[in-house]
Amino acid sequence: MYNIETNKETIAQLASMREDENDAFRSFIKNRDSKQIDELVFKLNSTIEKKIDCTSCGSCCNGLMINVTKNEAQLAAKHLEISVEDFKNKYIEESLAGEYIINTIPCHFLTEKKCSIYENRFNECREFPHLHKPNFNDRLFGTLIHYSICPIIYNVVEQLKIETKFKDQ
């Protein structure tokens, strides 16, 4: 149904060439009905996501800053069979406000393009690329930040340009 691009180098090249187009697309989308756009994005994401194996990519793990809740830190420590204190000392940076973030990019748990704690991965990792969430119109800027590295985002956005008739302008 859709022409799916999965080659990361090709996606990166096309993303670079389409920066101005994507800026125009952001303006175009802002003027569209948010609920209709959400429905389209949900439909596209559910179809495209099934055709892309995230575990063969790992780009998000190579470039995202990951927030971790205290509960997630406890679960990961338990999974790794270490104390929460050891987990925090080895893998976490804590903000002055007490927020946790993985202390390296790429993520410590990325091994050969796969998450070594996949079953216990953090919610932020589970939720990425966030295309199942409402208010896509308001989140498009953030989504486009990852357009050049995530085959799911790239393909959903490119198909959305076609479905919304943006490319017909």
Describe what is shown at a glance:
With 169 residues, this protein is mainly alpha-helical. It is 53% helix and 7% strand.
List the helices and strands and how they pair.
Elements: H1 8-17, H2 19-30, H3 34-49, H4 59-63, E1 67-68, H5 70-80, H6 84-91, E2 92-94, E3 100-102, E4 110-111, E5 114-115, H7 123-127, H8 136-145, H9 151-163
Antiparallel strand pairs: 1-3, 2-3, 4-5
Helix pairs in contact: 2-8, 3-9, 5-6
Q: H/E series, N to C?
A: HHHHEHHEEEEHHH
- Rg over C-alpha atoms, rounded to the nearest angstrom: 18 Å
Total number of helices? 9
Strands of the widest sheet, in order across it, are 1-3-2
Provide the residue-averaged pLDDT.
93
**Low-pLDDT stretches:** none
> How is the biggest beta sheet arranged?
3 strands, antiparallel
- Percent in helix: 40-55%
Please report which band the strand proportion falls in: under 5%, 5-15%, 15-25%, 25-35%, 35-45% or over 45%: 5-15%
Overall morphology: elongated
Structural class: mainly alpha
